[in-house]
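Bench log, entry 3. Co-assembly request; chain sequences pasted below exactly as received.
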Amino acid sequence: MKLHPAKLLLLQILVAVVALAIWQVGATVPIGGDYLLPEFFFSKPWDVLSRVVQLFVSGTIWKHLWITLTETVLAFVIGSAGGVVIGFWFARKPVVAAVFDPYVKMFNALPRVVLAPIFMLWLGLGIWSKVALGVTLVFFIVFFNVYQGVKEVSPVVLANARMMGMSERQLFRNVYWPSAMSWMFSSLHTAVGFALVGAVVGEYLGSSAGLGYLIHQAEGVFDVTGVFAGMFILAAFVLVIDWFVTRVERRLLVWRPQAASEEN
Amino acid sequence: MEIALRQPGREGPAPGAAPLAVALDDVSISFAVKGRPVFKAVAPTSLHVGDGEFVAIVGPTGCGKSTLLNATAGLLKPAGGRVAIFGEPLAGLNAKAGYLFQQDALMPWKTALDNVAIALEIGGARRADTLAQGRDWLARVGLARFTDRYPHELSGGQRKRVALAQVLVRDPKILLMDEPFGPLDAQTRQIMGTLLLRLWAQDRKAVMFVTHDLEEAIALSDRVVIMSAGPEARIIGNFPIDLARPRDTADIRLDPRFHQLHREIWNQLKAEVAKTYGEEMA
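Structure output for the full assembly:
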């Protein structure tokens, strides 16, 4: 069954309205002398909204957004570059891959959050400790995808390219690279998401700026309104980045059948 | 008996004149699979293909037709015997041959035009030239309007046409075809066959065409070579096809001579097909 787009939008808005209404009523209307959602713990929708507006109007939010964005982009770029290089290297040199295999598995098994304090010790409270945390997350996603992409090149496409007379360099450019990139781009959403997680978690654990810092500060003084305001801004921020990534993906993977069917 | 069996494959054009396009002499092919005895796919076999000759290799599924083709292409090293291309021993990949694969071999990330143009580009040709020639070849295979399509936007038959253009644009002296029209439906196969013959007639390359479809083999080729069921497959029959050219692969099937040839060859192939299935059922 398919809903009419306008009807769907209406229902989607309805969900938000109902949720906000329950929140507002729970926080302001006492039921039998007790509030269902005490303002101290849950704040109020209107307060959160005015805090968000205030953050934007006063301009304080821009600095934090900028810091978080910078960390995310740096983590993504560095992690991806590392993942591509190492992924290619391992895929083309099975001996190297075999030697490093247990260590790759070990590092990947480690919950990356525990590395945050180490990075903070090594790199300080500035952006680089957050970038490092994001890199460790992004690296493995890109690494595994590139590795797979090189390994999974169709043997027929490869044989055909060889019969054409391609040299190793030409094979790299025309066959291995596009194949690896298609795998990497298919994990673009996850990789960017993890870069952001690294940045925000890093900020949360110790920093002087960024969205994670903002939320942590508000939490430290029991400013629930501030925490919710930070969360909403963060969610909106992720949606904007995700929209941007989708655009990039569609441009880069025009040759893939899925790209067409995902369009709606 | 042994000699009699090996003889058929050697009946190419008279030796001594121009060197043979492909000369496989006592070529055998084995596969080593870990933990199992060596699998002898093809017993020592000889096959000669003259320059400009269209040879079809027919045999039951899994008889090693494709491995023989891969050995000629240089993709597979034979366990024994000699492979000579235009009189010279083959070392590494066969640079004189173009290979049309059964499966999709186009680069999915390149448009039809780029897939054809790249075949020339790697030889160092100028991009403008490669694009011009690529367009020209796509037009020749009837895809002039589809140059900007990606492989997934084309039908199976159209993809085959692109692959054919990709192979022919390099102007190889030898054309190796491994059941190229196998995945296509019956009508498309006939159309592709006629297209292939038309393009081939323009400069008569040597062709080795592997198929399990006897009718297709007769309709296309100058000579049909029959291989026995594997393992240790051999060439067990060699039939010159004296049907007049140019041929239309659909119309030729109505020719009485076609039926006569078909009957003769089928009688020999039948026993081999029965053998393959007999062994599988046992």
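Chain A has two domains: 1-42, 44-262. Chain A touches chain B through 22 residues (CB under 8 Å).
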